[in-house]
């Protein structure tokens, strides 16, 4: 009978399961000597499990007290308040300030306490500084368009200018490396003191990317250049993507965009404008996300000179799919809702 019960138990390998098997045999009337004969565990272990079961009536191991915490719950709350008062304070600085409150703890302990409260160290997001006027304008804009549907946003052409630099300076690059390979050629991002920079103007809508033009060197980004760009790039895009259907044009408040001659020209062309566009609000413009995607793709090609950079930019621009463009346009409703929820502050985009 003992062999029949024990055979399936011999395959058990964890301490918890072994303990349960020993106590099960004990409950079935087997003596300690009988259980030892099964060789399911060392003799001392078997008798200790049986003894503990008789004393506590449970097979669970009593939780060890462990090392006492260096801080109380009240002191932990104090640490949290100190951190929230200065989000950029380091764990070493927090440890010093905490020590003044009577808690002698290391920077490592500080990090553990903050982690328990969900406070982890992360790189600060870079966003434009918002003035009171910016916040007010953002709220006005978002309230004005809060009821717009995906179909409404599908009629908008978004536009903007963007710079592209050589040697990966346009964005960040992550590499995987072994110890000692930090300066290996394949793990280094080359930089130069004065990298060539190319400025482009582009536009897109839910129907896909539109025209992209490169600003010639030594050309000022002024109202004359902008009017010519709209004439040569925007109008053909609207005709190609929307035909005779009325569409809406978006551009930000850059000086050359707000020039009287530009406003008059757009009116003469019967171009409807989205806005007024709030200042310092790239998070509301989906073309900013498109630029980021394009820059990453261009950087992967590792162009080595200005001509190659221009070639790669144009090639990667036309390779952007309509599905990606639609997803970015469809995010407008979420952007609007989030800015309203945050009372005009930055959204995640």
Describe the structure.
A hairpin with a 2-residue loop joins strand 2 and strand 3 (208-214). Mean pLDDT is 88; it is low at 1-13. The chain has 349 residues and is of the alpha/beta class. The longest helix is centred in the middle third of the chain and has 20 residues, at 223-242. It contains 16 helices and 5 strands. 48% of the residues lie in helices and 9% in strands. The radius of gyration is 33 Å and the shape is elongated.
Which labels suit this protein?
5 strands; about 350 residues; alpha/beta; 16 helices; about 50% helix
Task: Report a brief summary of the structure.
This protein has 349 residues and is α/β, with parallel strands linked by helices.
Helix-strand sequence: HHHHHHHHHEEEHEHHEHHHH
* Anisotropy-based shape: elongated
- What is the radius of gyration? 33 Å
| Major beta sheet summary | 5 strands, mixed
Instruction: Please count the helical segments.
Output: 16
Helix content: 40-55%
State the distance separating the first and last CA atoms. Answer: 69 Å
Find the count of extended strands (DSSP E, 2+ residues).
5
> What is the strand arrangement across the widest sheet?
3-2-1-4-5
The average pLDDT score comes to 88
Q: Which ranges are low-confidence, i.e. pLDDT below 50, for 5 or more consecutive residues?
A: 1-13
In what range is the share of β-strand residues?
5-15%
Output the structural class.
alpha/beta
Organism: Cyprinus carpio (Common carp)
GO molecular function: DNA binding
Domain Transposase Tc1-like: 77-145
Domain Tc1-like transposase DDE: 156-309
């Amino acid at each position: 009978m003992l062999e029949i019960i024990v055979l399936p138990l011999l395959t058990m390998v964890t301490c918890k399961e072994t303990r349960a098997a020993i106590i099960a045999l004990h409950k079935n009337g087997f003596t300690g000597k009988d259980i030892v004969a099964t060789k399911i565990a060392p003799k001392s272990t078997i008798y200790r499990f049986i003894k503990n079961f008789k004393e506590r009536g449970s097979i669970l191991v009593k939780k060890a007290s462990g090392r006492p915490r260096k801080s109380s719950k009240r002191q932990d709350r104090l640490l949290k308040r100190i951190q929230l008062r200065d989000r950029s304070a380091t764990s070493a600085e927090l440890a010093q300030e905490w020590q003044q409150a009577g808690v002698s703890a290391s920077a490592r302990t500080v990090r553990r306490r903050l982690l328990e409260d969900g406070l982890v160290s992360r790189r600060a997001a870079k966003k434009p500084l918002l003035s009171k006027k910016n916040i007010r304008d953002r709220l006005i804009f978002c309230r004005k368009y809060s009821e717009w549907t995906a179909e409404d946003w599908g009629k908008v052409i978004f536009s903007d200018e963007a710079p592209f630099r050589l040697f990966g300076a346009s964005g960040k690059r992550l590499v995987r490396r072994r110890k000692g390979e930090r300066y290996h050629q394949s793990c280094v991002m080359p930089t130069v003191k004065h990298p060539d920079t190319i400025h482009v103007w582009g536009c897109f809508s839910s129907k896909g990317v539109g025209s992209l033009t490169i600003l010639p060197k030594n050309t000022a980004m002024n109202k004359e250049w902008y009017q010519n760009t709209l004439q040569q790039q925007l109008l053909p895009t609207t005709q190609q993507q929307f035909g005779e259907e009325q569409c809406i044009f978006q551009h930000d408040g850059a000086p050359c965009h707000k020039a009287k001659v530009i406003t008059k020209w757009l009116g003469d062309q019967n171009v409807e404008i989205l806005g007024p566009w709030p200042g310092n609000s790239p998070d509301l413009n989906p073309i900013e996300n498109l630029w980021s995607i394009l820059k990453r793709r261009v950087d992967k090609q590792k162009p080595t000179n200005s001509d190659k950079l221009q070639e790669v930019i144009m090639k990667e621009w036309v390779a952007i799919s309509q599905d990606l463009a639609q997803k970015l346009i469809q995010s407008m409703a979420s952007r609007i809702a989030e800015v309203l929820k945050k009372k005009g502050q930055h959204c995640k985009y």
